[in-house]
Design a protein that fits this description.
Blueprint: E1 2-9, E2 12-17, E3 21-26, H1 30-34, E4 43-50, E5 55-61, E6 67-68, E7 73-74, E8 78-84, H2 92-105, E9 108-114, H3 121-132, E10 137-140, H4 149-156, E11 160-164, H5 171-178, H6 188-196, E12 206-209, E13 212-216, H7 241-244, H8 261-267, H9 273-290
Parallel strand pairs: 3-5, 8-9, 8-11, 9-10, 11-13
Antiparallel strand pairs: 1-2, 1-4, 2-3, 4-5, 6-7, 12-13
Helix pairs in contact: 2-9
Bound molecules: guanosine-5'-triphosphate and zinc ion (ZN).
Zinc ion binds near residues 252, 257, 260 and 262.
Protein name: Small ribosomal subunit biogenesis GTPase RsgA
Pfam families: RsgA_GTPase, RsgA_N
GO molecular function, one term: metal ion binding
């Protein structure tokens, strides 16, 4: 039988199998035969040993499509990053860092701006257009007005999705609305309780129907980027691409070079100022990191 690892605790793995429920499995011999440790998100073949008690063995880990480190999970189809349009004011530097990190991992990110009820339509569009114009899908939601919830639900269908965002943006409220029937009793709520203590956090996937899974992640307030060379950072800002061919210098960093088409585009308002500023800040940071 085939299923997906949704949780692993103390040598036991919990495998969700569409329409057959969850099996508690051991992974004896897997490391020896495949030289890898099972990971939440892995699709696996299991042998059912005891159907009435829902126990089995993992016999094979199927090939991984990808593997994230934060959070620890494999086979992620997409990430949804949630920010509030206001209260708290969106930290676009943090948003850009998240987008860069996911681009590096090859995971498509959709931006969800929640609390849309707190700003005018114009304000919402101004914010969204910064990201829409660089090719990102942006959805607006309001858990208060019950808006955009179905759009998010539609995105989750048949996928494994990581949900992330800073604290206070309404991520828990949103999860409760998009997944009223999910197996979330150990999810967002107990995460909240655990956050105060120094408990080990186990990443866990929640199945919201037979073929759709979400992973909630703890609210974060900073994101340290590593493994990216400062000179490569520009490649993570896709809106630069169409201009950089025209820059005088090949490999132009678009900061201090003369005859830089990216800076021209910035002057003309064709490239977002906020994004560009975040680019420069993060560039400096990556450059300084290199010195140590
Ligand atoms: N105006 C408005 N307030 C919202 C909305 N969604 C959530 N809130 C409020 O925002 C606050 C934070 O909501 P939570 O759902 O706890 O946010 P969270 O992102 O899970 O926060 P953490 O638990 O700190 O990670 C609460 O007071 C909610 O009532 C919304 O769409 N509009
Ligand atoms: Zn340039």
């Amino acid at each position: 039988m085939q299923g997906k690892i949704i949780k692993g605790i103390a040598g036991f793995y919990y495998i969700h199998t569409p329409y057959m429920g969850v099996y508690e499995c051991k992974a004896k011999g897997i490391f020896r035969s495949q030289k890898i440790k099972p990971l939440v998100g892995d699709n696996v073949d299991i042998d059912v040993i005891d159907e009435s008690n829902k126990k089995g063995n993992i016999v094979k880990i199927l090939e991984r499509k990808n593997q994230l480190i934060r959070p620890m999970v494999s086979n992620v189809d997409q990430a949804i990053i949630i920010f509030a349009v206001s209260s708290p004011k969106p930290n676009l530097n943090l948003l850009d860092r998240f987008l860069i990190m996911m681009l590096k991992e090859g995971v498509n990110t959709i931006i969800c701006f929640n609390k849309s009820d707190l700003v005018s339509e114009d304000e919402f569009d101004n914010l969204s257009n910064i990201y829409r114009s660089c090719g990102y899908q942006v959805i607006g939601t309001s858990t208060v007005l019950d808006e955009g919830i179905q759009a998010v639900q539609a995105l989750l269908e048949d996928k494994t999705t990581v949900l992330a965002g800073p604290s206070g943006v309404g991520k828990s409220s949103l999860i409760n609305q998009i997944t009223p029937n999910a197996n979330m009793e150990t999810g967002a709520i107990s995460d909240k309780i655990q956050r105060g203590k120094h408990t080990t956090r186990h990443s866990e996937l929640h199945y919201i129907n037979e073929t759709s899974y979400i992973m909630d992640t703890p609210g974060f307030s900073s994101l340290y980027l590593d493994g990216i060379e400062c000179n490569e950072l520009k490649d993570y800002f896709s809106e630069f691409t169409e201009y950089e061919e025209g820059c005088r210098y090949k490999g132009c960093i678009h900061i201090n070079e003369p005859d830089c088409r990216v800076k021209d585009a910035l002057e003309l308002g064709e490239i977002s100022e906020v994004r560009y500023r975040n680019y420069v800040t993060i560039y400096q940071e990556l450059k300084d990191q290199r010195k140590y």
